[in-house]
Every structure is written in C-alpha cells, then in structure tokens.
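Data card: per-record layout.
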Amino acid sequence: MAKTLVIVESPAKAKTIGKFLGSKYKIKASVGHVRDLPKSKLGIDVENEFKPKYITIRGKGEILSELKREVKKAEKVLLATDPDREGEAISWHLANALKIDDSDKIRIEFNEITKSAITKAVKNPRKINYNLVDAQQARRILDRLVGYKISPLLWKKIRKGLSAGRVQSVATKLICDREKEIKKFKPREYWTINVLLKKGKLELDSSFIGNIINNKANKIELNNEEEVNAILDKIDKDNFTVSEVKKSTKKRNPYKPYTTSSLQQDAFNRLNFTTKKTMRIAQQLYEGIDLKKKEGIVGLISYIRTDSTRISEEAKQKAKDYICNELGEKYYGGVKSVKKEKKKNDIQDAHECIRPTYVDKTPESIKQYLSRDQFRLYNLIWQRFVASQMSPSESETTTVKTVSNGYLFKASYSKLIFDGFMKVYKIKEDKKVNKTINLEKGETLKAKDIIPKQHFTQPPPRFSEATLVKTMEELGIGRPATYAPIISTILSRNYVVLENKYLAPTELGFIVTELLEDYFRNVVNEEFTAKMEKDLDKVEAGELSWVDVVANFYENFKNDLEIAEKEIEAIEIKDEETDVICDKCGRNMVIKHGRYGKFLACPGYPECKNTKPLIKDIGVKCPKCGGDIVQRRSKKGRVFYGCSNYPDCDFISWNIPVEEKCPNCNGIMVKKVNKKGEFHECISCKTKVDKK
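The structure for this 692-residue chain is written out next.
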C-alpha cells in the first residue's frame, strides 16, 4: 500500500511523530537544512535582483538521495518542518531539491508534538507560504552581504579570522557602549539612616525619609557625614511617635507564560543556564523524551521559538481542570482578558507561548525519565504556565510612619494572606514579609539601634546574557531564533568574554566596533537594525517585496564599502610583551589572542612554537594549601580562579576570591554582584557581607 511520506528536520522529532501516525505514514528526517549559499563565495547576484545561488550543503548528498528514493515510492509527501520562517524556508528548499510540486498542499505545521496536533495537521495541509520564505531569504541574504563584504575588509585592515554580522555587530556595540558608560561613571556619595524601633517583642526596621514641615512630609537626601550627624544629634532615641499606621490589601497577578526571551532570561537567573544551553535543552523537551514503558517518546513542551504569550483554548481548559482538581477552585484565576501587547504584531503573535503539552504530566511524575537539566527546565516551564492561569496572591501591607523631633521614618511590612499562584511558582520574597504589626497612632517607641550607613552610587552593570537578550528584545533587534546564536557568535569571535557571568568587551571588540561605527553606521545602528526587523515582518505579511528591502539596504551599504576600502588604513594590534621567559629559546613571551581568550606565545614563531596559559596572580592565598590563587580560562573561554599548585591542589572558584576573611568562620570569601550591587560571600558557610 502506498504511504504518505512525512519529512521533518530532526530524527528525534521523527521518532515522536512516528508513534502517532499509523502504518500508512513513513517519517523521515532531513537533519536540518539541505541547501544554503556556498561558503566559498558570496553566492548572490547583486546585479540581478540579488538572486541567490543555493547549493546542497556538504554532507547532505546522501540524505537527499535517500529522501528522493522515498519520494518516488510515496503517493503523497508532507513537509512538517518547524512553524516559523526558517522552517518554511527548509520546506521550500526540500520541495525544490526533491522536485516536489510546491503548488500542491504539501506543508503541515503544528505548535506541539501531540497526537491531536499531529492528526489535525495531516488532515489540513496547506501550500508553502512564500511570504514566510521570502522573509527568511531576505534575512539570509542581508546577513550574507554584511558578513561577506565587511569580513574581508576586517581581515585586510586588522587581522585574519574576524567577521562582522548584521545583528551580532549591534550586540557587540551595546556591550562596548555599556563598558564606556562604566568607565566614565563617577560615583556619588549618599547616606542612609536606619532605626531599629522596639515595643515589647516587636521590632520595627525603619528608614529615614525626611522631616515634617507644616504637617507635610519633606524628603531629604543625605549627601555626607556632616548632614547625617546633624540629624543624629537631634533625634530623641526614646521618643519616636507613631504618626500613621496604614493597612491595605494588595493583589499580585501571576506572570504570563514564557516566550523565548523570557524563558532564556529566567533560565539564566534561576538555573544559571546560558541562552545556548536553554535552547538546546528546550529543543530536546519539544522534540520528545522517552518515558519508557509508560508512554514511549513524548513531546513535553510546545514550540520554543515564539514572541507570543497566547494560549490555545484547549490548553486553557486543561490548565483549569488541573488547577481545580488538584489545588482547589479558589486557586483558579478565571477567564482572563488578554490585552494585546503594543509591540507585538499579528505576524509575531501567530504562535502560542512556551507551555507543557500535557499539564497533567507534572515535573515530579516524570522526573525519573529526565536528566537533571531537563527536569529543571521543564519544571520552570510547567510552573510558569500553570501559575499563569491561577489566582493572584493577596498580601496585607502595613506602613508605619514615626516622627522624632520632626524627623520622619518609615517602615513597610507585608503578610501573605493567600498564596494564589505563588503556591506553584515561587517568588523570592522580601525579608519584610509575614510580620504582623499591631500599633496605633500616637504610640511612643524607643530606638534599640540607630545605624547610619555610607553608600556610593553604582555604575550601570555589565550585560549578562539575560539582560542582553532583554535589551535586544526591547529594542526590536533580532528575533526568538537569533538571540542564542548571536551571543554564541560574539563570544566565539573573541569580541566579548565572560567575566563572572557578565559580558565584557575585549580590545578586539572595541577596535572592530569603532571601525564599523566610523564607516558602517547603519550596520551597528540599533534603530536601523530594528527597522530592518520590522521590514522583514512586512515581507512576511506580504506588504513589502524582499528584493526592495535588500536593494534599499545595499544601495547605501555599497557606497560605505567603497569609502571604507579607500580610507581605512591597516590597524596593527601589537602583541603585548611580558617578563615571562620562553623556556625553550629564552625570548620574552608575548600575549596572543586565541579563540578562548589570551595566552602566552613565543614571538619566535614559527621557529619556536612554545605556548603557555596566561596566568594572573590576584594576590589571594589558597585556603587548601597556601599557594597563590591565579586567574585562568577554561577551554570554552570562561574565567575561573584556581590554585597555582594545580594539579596537586584542586581548589577552583568561578567567582574571584578576595583577601577579606569570613567574619563568621574565617573562611575565604568571593566577590559577587547582584541587582543591588557588590557583596562578598563565604564559600564555606555562605555568609554575605554587603559592599555597597
């Protein structure tokens, strides 16, 4: 009996889909793209409406031959690649390579790999959407023009192996601009006064606000110690009068389910996953996990590249059933009216959010079938989705204002009275939570302790992977499928390095960015890049021609190229000489830049090929053996700190150790940074010391 051939991208997806379709279907995988522009040349006819020349990707010939044989045997062919621009383009390339009539209804798509979704998809094939294909083709051609036209220029003027990219260059510029802000930043001194008030067993931590003038609060900023001392001299420690006690009930609404961007950010902040790792594991969960005898291979989450928080009605109903049956009806949030986000357009909102395909498959119920990282990410996605359909949490907040000799202090506390969605999706609560305040206006309190504290304003923090993704999304740069590859590229090119989980530009990153700013302003212009993304959306919507989009860009870009070729002089990056002597030939070794950062090399190359890792002494002794702790780089370029006596001593730390000893156990402390600023943490007992 003739079979219907279904072609997907990955073998894992093929296995998952195969169990839903009967013997009349045969599932094969293309293993990703089968055709692309050639690597050895531009592959675009810029004189003939930018016509691309596609060739079979090296190593895909055998796969294509097998697919062609299967096509001949099949009565019908369905292309089931991913439901986005890239997936549509892969289907178009497959149709062309396999000589399938692309005017027929040969394309199927689904947002999740479940039996109902797959069954519905095969019953409703459609034609290939050429607007989607054109949008993806335009992106590919624009990226190729920028990469293949500017990169040779960088090779000639700076050094071989460099590259420029339409979006990666903007991301690098954002990181370089932030570094400039940090270097220019001048800290400003300011002070706070905290008073620990006491009444019986109740202790109230109050912060200085200002003074009272004509029965109105007047805020005061404390800029130096003299101003603080003047206030301290006037405060009556034994007389803090309660001027106001205000109680109210506040509701906290649940977060929306995940998009690609918000998942990457949360996985970074909560699980310490890189964007690349998040997408790799999410892809595994989407394509299918083997639940063994229980059910076989099951796709656990919906499609992972999306800008939308929309939820299908079927998924909403299943979430409602689970919440009402397992947690109780009071935890169900009811029907929510979803306001369409202004920044989303109809094109981007075509997909659903990232959610579990079977809400009844709780993380704990399938934990034994998942790796540790798979479980942690699935748990995050499951909790966020279920919580999004739950009731708001409710807290009773109490604000207490007290006055001493005309100076106003304020304390705020809250008590959780209904956990709501927080029963499932945990949120780090403030320390001032679940405290009952029973005070009346006019009561007098005494100060147990008065704590003046000096602070300095902090420079803007470097970007982490999470904050860079958030910024790119806010600026409209890139799309869900591009965030992780962009970060991987700028790291691999050594334009940026990871230092304590933050992205820092290298000297090379600065040089390349400055050159592009001088000669290719549109390439590194955030607004121009965001406009280009909108134009690609218009191509997808059928409102713009992809050829016009590329032509408009190339007209100015070509002129910039000609000017750059004439004006840019060769930039010599001199190797920094060190006092480290080459133990093979006696020369002073120099610092070189490699794929994974800096290293020491003999300047006598190629006669002498001696290299050594670049080790930086940070002036702290090893807690294990007393040796020197030095800065090193892992094979992937990540900075870490280890003992100079390695391998005899195995002490390592991903955070930089400091000379300060732990006040609690006298152990070694490391420097860390969070949203509130710098602090030191003991690696043994986890004691934290604020360094703001």
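Known properties of this structure: The radius of gyration is 30 Å. The first strand starts at residue 4 and ends at 8.

See the next section for split statistics.
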